[in-house]
Write a structure and sequence with these properties.
By secondary structure, the chain is an alpha+beta fold. The protein contains two helices and seven strands.
Amino acid sequence: MVERFKKLINEKLYDGTAIHRIDPNLGIIQGGDPLTKATNTAMWGSGNSPYPNVPAEFSDIPYERGTVGAARTNDINTANCQWFITLKKQPAFDKKYTVFGRVIDGISNAEIIMNAPTQEGSERPADKVLIKSVTLQPRSNFP
């Protein structure tokens, strides 16, 4: 999943996408859907990259605050391009969703997104929360 994420970042797939799910009860925000570049919000959350799905890669890394996981359908082997960030511990996700990253800087941005208003009766943000661009930084840039 890490290699897929890097590939899609390099291809600029995430640039101009939107956060399409905010779930304060679970404490997650979700993005990575290329269909969020379009205006048909009914399709948001159902898009994939042009590449095959990535099989599940479970580990002993727990879902804690700041964990980045691979979003998928009910089929564990359907991770593709969508991701989520947990803002609180989620033991129910442990060994059920692929962990492939951790927020090491800027978790306050995710908290701001988590508190954005949603459409009534929905987890969809009321106003589009746009991701301008995603870039890779060398690990040495961070403590």
